[in-house]
Specification:
mainly alpha; globular
Amino acid sequence: MATGYVLGVFAVVIVLMIFLISKCKVHAAMGILLSAIILAIALKTPWQDIEGTINGGFSGTIKSVAIVIFLGCTMGTVLEKTGAAIRITKWAIGLFGDDKMIWGIALASFILGIPIFADTVVILLIPIVSLLAVQTKKSMMCYGTVLYLGALVTASLVPPTPGPVSAAALLNVPLGQAIIWGLLTAVPSVIAATFYCMTLKTPVLPKEEFIKAAKEAVDGRELPGLTKAMAPIVFPLVLIVCNTAASILVPDTGIANFLAFIGSPLAALFSGCLVSLTLTGKDWKTKKVLDSWVGEGVTAAAMPIIVTGMGGALATFVKNAGVADRIAEMVVQSSFPAILIPIIIAAIIHVVTGSNALGVMTAAALVEPMLGTLGISPVAAFLACGTGALMFKHANSSGFWVTVSMSNMDVNQGIRAVGGASTVAGLTGAIFTCIFSALHWI
C-alpha cells in the first residue's frame, strides 16, 4: 500500500476515534475498539485475522498491568474510606503554617494523587480546603485549583495510578524507572502550577455546606496516625525502587533475585494493600473491608484496564501496517524534534476528550511502535505522554467540573484557574522532559 494511503487512513481513523469519544459521547473503550476494527479493514487486514489480532493485542497489553491497576485502585479505596487521606492532608498543611498554606495543600494533593484519582482527591478534601480558605482569607480559585492540580500531575506521571501504569506497560518501561522519573518531572510541574495558583486572587468564597462538613469532620472523626496513613503509599514504592536499584547495582545476586519478586509491581502493590488493612482497625476481617471495599476497587479498575487493552489492540494494527514507522521517518526527515511528537499527540487527545488518563494511555499506544525510528527512549516517551496529557483542562473534563463547581467558581474563572494551571504544569513537565532527553539522562 502507498505511504500516502496508509497515513491518510490512519489520520482519518484517529480523528474518528476522537470524534466518537468527545462529541458522540461513546465510551472510550468502545470508541477505540471500533477505530481498531475500521483501521484493520481499511488497511486490508485479512478478515479471518482481525479478531485474533485484536484479542492478541488486548491480552498482550493487559497481562502485565491489569492486576497492578486493580491493586492500586483497591489500596486507594482503603485510603479514602479510613480517613488516611485527611490525616496526610492535615500533616502536610501543618508543615507550612497559615502564611504558606497553599504549599501544604499542594504537598498533600501531590502525595494523594499517587494512589487516588485526582477527582476523588478533590471530593475528599474540598471541605477541609474550604475551611482553610475562610481561615486564611484566600480565594477558592487559588486553593481549589491547587488541590486538584497536585493530584492531577502525579496521577498523570507517577504509578500506581492507572494512567501512568498503563503507559509504562505499553512502552515497556520498568515501573521502578517510571516512578523515579515520574516523580522527578512531577515535582517542578507542581511547583510551577502552585506559583501560578498564587496569582489567582479574584475573591471566590467557599460553599457553606463544605465549611460545615469540615467542622463536623474535625470535631467527630478519629483519624489514623500519620505513619499508618503513609505506609500503604510509601512501602510499595520503596520495594519497587529497591528492586530497580538492585537490578542495576548488584544484578544476578541472591538479594537482586529476592527483590525481583517482592519489588515486582504485583507483589509490591499487594503488600501495600495488606499494609492498608492496618488502617481499618478491628474491621479488617469484616465483609465491608474484604468484600465491599475490594469490590469498589474492582469497579474503579475496570475502565482503565479495558481502555488500556483496547489501546494495545489499536497499536497492534498500527505496528503491523508500518504506520508508525512511516510517520517516524517523516518526522526524522523533517528535522522536527522527535521528543515533541508524544507530547503533541497526548495533548491533542487530552484537550479534545477531556481525559488525561486517556491521553496518556492512547498516546503511549500510538507512539510505542515509533520509538526505534524516532530515536527516543521508552522512558522519555513515558514522560512526554504524561506531561502532554496535562495540557489545558477545560469544560469537557469531569475533573474540571468537579473542581470548579465544588470551589464555587464560574466557568470563566475555572478556565483561567484550572485551565491555566494545568497548562503551566504540562509545559513545565514537557520542558524538563526535553532537558532530560537532550542530556541523555533518559
